[in-house]
Amino acid sequence: MASAEQVEEGRALAPKFDADGLITCVATDVATGDVLMVAHMNAEALQKTIETGEAWYFSRSRRALWKKGETSGHVQRVVEMRIDCDQDAVWIRVEQQGPGACHTGRRSCFYRAIPVGKGRAVTLEFRDGEKTFDPKAVYDKS
Amino acid sequence: MASAEQVEEGRALAPKFDADGLITCVATDVATGDVLMVAHMNAEALQKTIETGEAWYFSRSRRALWKKGETSGHVQRVVEMRIDCDQDAVWIRVEQQGPGACHTGRRSCFYRAIPVGKGRAVTLEFRDGEKTFDPKAVYDKS
Q: Is the ipTM here above 0.85?
């Protein structure tokens, strides 16, 4: 097993998967820097992403490997992939193909803001909340 | 319990904490768009971040609430906070105080790249890997 020093300062990929065999992946838009989505990868998804240069994930709800865009065509081409200090999270900068990354029909999954510094009562505020595609038309093809 | 429609399209904050009571938080640098760190918040950390406008987290290893910068002084001022479609992840755009966010002494935790599209053998490549502060001097104050 790698030491903390090796994990943090080494050049060997030593991903630290959680109890479910997953690491967190953050995908940002290479053009805007916006976070598009946060999802998870298992070892196979990580390997396929590295090999193909396109984003693969593992769906926790469906318990299945999943290529981003396999249904929608909204593939993510990975421009750069980075791993964090303790190797339990990856960050991919992607070219998002098509109108968006979010299954609700939006460019990004992060389309609502939480007001901060204004007390305890919270009402979410939509930001860039307009749908850029019709999720029913894209996902319900059967 | 909120329906998927309410969670995804509503204005009510309904964070979906995991079995350990945590949600994932991605912090990006408001100036550069770079991902600084990925960490976790429990309900209290989320509430304190919303109330104070500064980032609070929950340390899984120390099982403790943790204000970012409480030891180092490297506080994160939250410029904007967003939550994702299914409300199990938050994204904060922050002004990072001091020289960096990473406990290894770097601006970002994501200082190594994984080459993609070049086959199975992986050697990490340092990017922006120079230390911007001495972590021993900053964290070992006792």
A: yes
